Amino acid sequence: MDNFVVTFARGFGSGGKEIASMLAKDLGIHCYENRILTLASQMSGLDEKLFQEVNEKIRANGSFSSFLKGLPRARNYIARNEKFVSDDKLFECQSQIIRNLAETESCVIVGKCADYILRDKQNVVSVYIEAPRAFCLERTMQKMGVTKEVAAATIEQTDKFRADYYKYYTHGNYWTNPVNYDMTLNSEKVGIEDCVKIIKQYLIIKGYIK
Questions:
Q1: Residue 176 lies in domain
Q2: What is the CATH number of the domain that holds 61?
Q3: What is the DSSP string of 71-83?
Q4: For the segment 100-124, what is each residue's pLDDT rounded down to a tens digit?
Q5: How far apart are CA 92 and CA 198, in angstroms?
Q6: Which end of the chain has fewer CB atoms at under 10 Å, N or C?
Q7: Residue 65 pLDDT exceeds 70
Q8: Are 196 and 115 in contact (CB under 8 A)?
Q9: Mean of pLDDT over the chain
Q10: Residues in Cβ contact with 28 at an 8 Å cutoff, skipping those fewer than 6 apart
Q11: What is the rounded CA–CA span in Å between residue 175 and residue 166?
Q12: Spatial CA neighbour of 68 closest among 59, 77, 76
């Protein structure tokens, strides 16, 4: 198999994004998250014909990843103090971008229901990272420089947003269902760096890396 994709879902504060980034760096491949949303936001404003023209042009030039890397990161991509509001066109744009990535390069994709979007692909490994609330609280307080109360509210609101997002776009599935993923890791018990090692070992077992 020429290329593979590792998708990550993660509880807020669990270190899932850090694990995804470390894995991508170790493997020498790209890690995608916010830039997918940036591109999808731009392309969702186009009519279907223009969308397809842009989509095909990016792929034809063989520079899809370079194009994404050149985009700014989306800011406030999760409205932590707002309820989830669906945007079907935006999600469809994201889905097409994710499918393109899966077809054209080895990469890591964080969030965006990527495990569900790529569920019928044979070259995908899906991972869910979670940890006890106390661990997530401590990490969030340190990373964001906020109080315990603010950290707790951020975790609760962000995880609810992610759960609602996943449930809506997977037509009723739930985000923390272990059956959705190849593996679920507790980042507190396993450790951030050892999570990366375990995922790499699984990729070896699956024959994606040596």
A1: 5-204
A2: 3.40.50.300
A3: SPPPSS-S-TTS-
A4: 889 888 999 999 999 999 999 999 9
A5: 32
A6: C
A7: no
A8: no
A9: 85
A10: none
A11: 6
A12: 59
